[in-house]
Amino acid sequence: MNVHEQVTARIMEILEAGTIPWKKPWNSSEGAKNLISKKPYRGINQFLLNCSPYGSPYWLTYRQAADRGGQVRKGEKSTPVVFWKWLDRKDSDDQDQDSTTGRVPLLRYYNVFNLEQIDGITAPVEEQPVNSFSPIEQAELVIRNMPSRPNILHGGERAFYSPKLDFIQLPPKEAFTSPEEFYSTAFHELAHSSGHASRLSRKGILEPSYFGSHDYSQEELVAEFGASMLCGYAGIEQQTLENSVAYIQGWLKVLKGDKKLAIVAAGQAQRAADFILNIQHTDDEQTQT
Hints:
The protein is an alpha/beta fold. The chain has helices spanning 3-17, 43-50, 62-67, 137-144, 179-193, 203-206, 214-234, 237-254, 259-276, 283-288, and strands at residues 33-34, 58-60, 71-72, 79-88, 103-114, 118-119, 151-154, 160-162, 167-170.
């Protein structure tokens, strides 16, 4: 069993064991929170909001933004936040229950916008802690030796890959909770970049998709599996595996727990990791994977 298969097997084993909370691996004001109440969102909401392509941790409803003198920019799309509302059974639409007493949960949602989507509201100033950073040579070699590697820029509070401009943006190395988490995040974005038309031409990168869609979610699985495989190659998987599994669990929830899709994504991730590591396969080996 090679390192890719070992990492995939370990991830699938942990996925079956239960839910692990996910958090951004760099200091980002303790995750997504409502600007007005300052309360952090919980559960799947925290995961989905943290995975959005915005750097600010603050979110507001359209009305909250208007009340504060802000204006959501034209064309900006909202992100749904889900919650459970408890109703008396007699007031609910549940006609299948014999009893009409007690309370039943009803799933509801409302829409929020990130502060970066809103004009006219200034973000609160928060001092960010700075961590020491010690490079890990094997992980540095993975990044340095990637064939036709895209440009990598550092700064801000966002980590993303731009397919259109073919570059990677990462927060400063010192903003990460550990060097291992920095490399895990960098490997995630490198895995995304492997899908560019000049590299592996993967559908998840070539075709536009919206946040939370099936194709977007599958591409996130590919990138995170790929990052885990590269961490395994660099010898840092044990320090990053738990957060990677939690991230994968979050996207599987979006995809309604489709474990088969995780296997498909792991196969695509192996091809991405092999490309980044410049590992060549014979035609027979390519067919097997």
